[in-house]
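Hi support team,

I'm filing this because I wasn't sure whether my run with L-homoserine finished correctly. The job status page said complete, but I'd like someone to confirm that the output block is well-formed before I use it downstream. Pasting the exact inputs I used:
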Amino acid sequence: MKPVKVGICGLGTVGGGTFNVLIRNADEIARRAGRSIEVAAIASRRENSACDTSGFTFTNDVMALARDPDIDIVVELIGGYEVARELVMTAIEHGKHVVTANKALIAVHGNEIFAAANEKNVVVAFEAAVAGGIPIIKAIREGLAANKINWLAGIINGTGNFIMTEMREKGRAFNDVLAEAQALGYAEADPTFDVEGIDAAHKLTILASIAYGIPLQFDKSYTEGISKITPEDVQYAEELGYRIKHLGISRHTEQGIELRVHPTLIPKSTLLANVNGVMNAILVSGDAVGQTLYYGPGAGAEPTASAWWLI
Ligand code: HSE
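And here is everything the job wrote out:
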């Protein structure tokens, strides 16, 4: 059978990780997918020193890649809203399937994107957009398909959790830990998205849409970040038997579905309170199954690359 031809747009942290995993695990992936996957082209403004792209077709024109008749799947890893939207819509218009890790794009423009994809009978896969390497979209959509989801709550921003953990365990200063999160490739290009809760609100919007079968409604989320948390807050919480965790919470209420993202005091003994560093965890309550918990790395090149092809 002919290989599936993939075009990777963006060769930053996640793009580079995706390229490397696709090349390194090509045989495993082909065995599972039933067809081999070939990186037919890479579109990026710059090279990534972590990737050996010699011998691969390289361009800086992402839109040309989205129109290229030789490409079956466009992998959007450039991030941001507008160029990414145009790229994805162009790819769909040209009958290509799309894989994206872009939570901002899905949360804000997802309704329009899925309508276009439906019309063209192509798939837009976005597993890597929420909680890095945790296959949470697949778990809710398929694993819990028989359930009515009552509520979900989770730590869904790795950078924020890394900052809160380092402040508590090592007494480090907020800005110092944020700089490390940026160097490790955890933080968004604009880290305000991480520390002001916007990234978590994007992810919560997506989770709620999948869990309850509702349109994406990012503007309805209450959004508060961790930037006002002081070392004293962290210490007092600890003395009182609590941890401060930045949570995304969504549940059915009498008024409708609630979406909120904010720092939360949770008892030290709970599982969520012990999710540390860049790890994410999401509790999902279904009417048939009860509570389930999903845990794993929430950010970083290869953990995110690990999730990209799940549909
Ligand atoms: N900046 C994001 C985070 C990356 O820290 O969770 C993964 O979505």
